[in-house]
Amino acid sequence: MALREIIWGGITAVAVVLGPAPFWAAADTQSTAGVGALPPAAVMEQAAQRAMTPAQALQRLKEGNARFASGKLVERDWIGAVKKTASGQYPFATILGCIDSRVPPEIVFDQGIGDIFSVRIAGNFVDPEILGSLEFASKVAGSKLIVILGHSACGAIKGACDGVELGNLTTTLSHLRPAVEAVQDVPGPRNGKNAAFVDAVTHMNVRLTMESLRKQSPILDEMITKHEVGLVGGVYDVTTGVVTWLE
Ligand SMILES: [Zn+2]
Questions:
Q1: How far apart are CA 217 and CA 213, in angstroms?
Q2: How far is the CA of 156 from the centre of ligand 1 (A)?
Q3: Which of 62, 93, 223, 234 fits a 20 to 30 Å CA distance from 163?
Q4: CATH code, 71
Q5: Distance between CA atoms of 14 and 7, rounded to whole angstroms?
Q6: pLDDT in tens, 105-118
């Protein structure tokens, strides 16, 4: 059975397997609000998610980060959103970010309950398990945008630059080595103390992760090619709260 059939044709069969209320279960809510009229604090509903384009999803994140960086977060009815999303979720974007405690995606993009899928791993790279989550978010649950989000002063990137080895972290950091090796044009030492080198590796890692995502996930690559889902990279600055988007 194809995934699309799972969404539209086989949702009942999936629901039977997982129980009466699988967490992506289609809610019976109907919304007439177009995305252009969607207030920043609106709880995402199916109609709004379906109507949203990848570009509109990116714009919504950009506006959220601008609110966050200027200290003007929207007021939210958090527990109200819990109740509204209890029967189904329709997130508009998926953010693959680092585990860094200073970069919580929902907060730095000023988003609420049910707005975004948040996938986090030290160094924000993809592997088959991470890609499975991203494929679910886009192909099954209808998210319209994938953001690969690096950040400044990333300990994982610094660790990779320094060749740190420690338990399972060694394997984690091995995923960042291609970015370290790909940066060849930064003067100075090739280690975690060279801020310019670390910054270049951080950006390179975002770009290589975007490439790896498309190479390793035919499902996502096809969706991106068909403009069903967008793929963008960004780097969050831990000193300003601002996300700079990669061209
Ligand atoms: Zn990090």
A1: 6
A2: 5
A3: 234
A4: 3.40.1050.10
A5: 9
A6: 999 999 999 999 99
